[in-house]
Amino acid sequence: MIGRLRGTLVSKQPPWLLVDVGGVGYELEAPMSTIFDLPATGKEVILLTHHAVKEDSVALYGFLQESERALFRSLLKVSGIGAKIALAVLSGVSTGDFARLVQAGDVVALTKIPGIGKKTAERIVVELRDRVDGLDHVRLPGQAPAGAPMDAAGEATVALQQLGYKPAEVTRLVQKVAADGDSAEAIIRKALRAALGG
User: Fold this and answer.
1) What is the tens place of the pLDDT at every residue in 141-162?
2) Model pTM above 0.85
């Protein structure tokens, strides 16, 4: 199993990352919380990983914080939640805020995360209430990716759609929050906050 990678960040196209480790390129999926805090491409990065092996696929997920990886793994144990929804949770809310929502039993707030309906939110509260103690997360300012192939709003739009938001909703959110000079990460961060009513 692969538990940690240290190498050069080659590219970041949310939610995908490519990390060169000794000449081997590892492709990983990562939540936006990790992508916000990554260094610029070409710089060294250390990622904690979750290596998922299924009958028909092998996938690698990357995280900067142990609390993120722990929450991701806890979410995968909840019936009806796969990696895509677990990444959407981590992308939409910090681990500390998620822990508070679960402990408060705030099903309504949890259903604002893409892919989580009322029944799934209720299962999360029941199954994770005792497991989210001590989850905290420090978020640092993100950096805009170097040499992005599209403008920041376009990149943010693609990333939000890959997180599970509907195209019409993404367009509305991006138009609502995007300001001149914003990086894609800044637009995504503001859009996620707006989507969750924050």
Assistant:
1) 233 333 334 578 878 887 887 7
2) no
Distance separating alpha carbons of residues 17 and 27, to the nearest angstrom: 6
Residue 140 maps to a domain: no
> How many CB atoms within 10 Å of residue 161?
15
Q: How many domains does the chain have?
A: 3
Report which of 187, 117, 124 is spatially closest to residue 150, judged by C-alpha positions: 187
Place of tokens 């092998």: 58
- Answer yes or no: is 41 within a domain: yes
pLDDT of 180 reads 83
Instruction: Return the CATH number at 44.
Output: 2.40.50.140
Tens of pLDDT, residue by residue over 53-84, are 888 888 999 999 888 998 999 999 988 889 99
DSSP H or E run through 55: none
Element (H, E) at 181: none
Q: Is the same domain home to 71 and 121?
A: yes
C-alpha 124/C-alpha 25 separation (Å) is: 35
The range of the structural domain enclosing residue 14 comes to: 4-63
Secondary structure (3-state) at 186 = helix
